[in-house]
Amino acid sequence: MRKFREALQSQDFSISAELSLRREHTASDVHRQVDALGDMVDGIQVTDNPWLWVQMSTVAAASLVLQKGIDPIPVLSCRDRNRIALQSDLIGLRAMGITSILLTRGQNVPDDHLVKAANVFDTNSLELVAMAEELNDDPSVGPNENLFIGTGVRVFRPGTEWPANSLNARSDAGARFLQSQLCFNTDIIREYMDMLVRLKLTWKYEVIISLAILPSAKTAIWLKKKMRQTKIPIPLVERLQDAADAELEGIKICAELMQEISEIPGVSGINLMTTGNPESIPAAIKASGLHS
């Protein structure tokens, strides 16, 4: 099994994809998605109740991915667990054979959410990264391979005096790769990456840009409204609105962006997700020409 960390740190451009998990999904549903992605990706990301949706646990889904011989990248967030639960999951994932992990803060649960849940936030993302790195150095948790730790990052247009204090601090704590929010604006990505290169942060981090296959203009508008950090240019929404087949157009748009982003200096890979048909992910990878 080729490991995600090896692919991301190589000279090749890495592609990972996100499982599309719903609360009704079974082990067979997960295995079918893994089979569809197969050897087209370097790893499969397993999300942690994203966008406040309740789904199969990260640890359970990651174990199902491992059963198919594909490297999972579990996501753990600070929102739903205290320090004890986070450490327990980290130790369990290491014991399973997980070698890469993405650690994030997580999105606040709003007061009007259908699930009346409290925000935990017993830790922040910096402390969570440090916690995982401490386990890497702790011989009492077994001789398993150290976790390759990633952290979330917001791509934006940085000013010339941006100090990047948070990124330097998380690197010092043990983070080795960054994954952006969904960003379809390559101008913003170029400006951000120019600054990371200038600050030599690409010496410390591998950088992954998140993309999605948008099945409709309605979905794009929902993302812009509900996930305000998502960067979707208006002309892209208009392309989806004007398309005779919006789902096919979404695949085409994603493939074009994958090609363009792969040429931006400092970007090491792309992570793909979809809010529509999971089979659109392999279709976009094939259309991009980035999969050999």
CATH topology: TIM Barrel
Order of helices and strands: HEHEHEHEHEHEHEHHHEH
* Major beta sheet summary: 8 strands, parallel, barrel
Q: Taking all residues together, what is the mean pLDDT?
A: 93
User: Which band does the percent of strand residues land in?
Assistant: 15-25%
Helix-and-strand structural type: alpha/beta
Distance between the termini: 17 Å
Polypeptide structure, described:
- There is one protein chain.
- By secondary structure, the chain is α/β, with parallel strands linked by helices.
- It has one domain: TIM Barrel (Alpha-Beta Barrel), CATH 3.20.20.
- The chain has eleven helices and eight strands.
- Helix 4 (83-96) links the parallel strand 3 and strand 4 (100-104).
- Helix 2 crosses helix 3 and helix 10 packs across helix 11.
- The relative contact order is 0.14.
Which helices and strands occur, and which strands form pairs?
Blueprint: H1 4-8, E1 14-18, H2 27-37, E2 43-46, H3 58-67, E3 72-77, H4 83-96, E4 100-104, H5 125-136, E5 148-153, H6 165-173, E6 177-182, H7 186-198, E7 206-213, H8 217-226, H9 234-242, H10 246-262, E8 267-274, H11 280-288
Parallel strand pairs: 1-2, 1-8, 2-3, 3-4, 4-5, 5-6, 6-7, 7-8
Helix pairs in contact: 2-3, 4-5, 5-6, 8-9, 9-10, 10-11
Short description:
The protein is α/β, with parallel strands linked by helices. It contains eleven helices and eight strands.
Describe this protein with a few key phrases.
292 residues; alpha/beta; TIM Barrel; 8-stranded parallel barrel; 8 strands; 41% helix
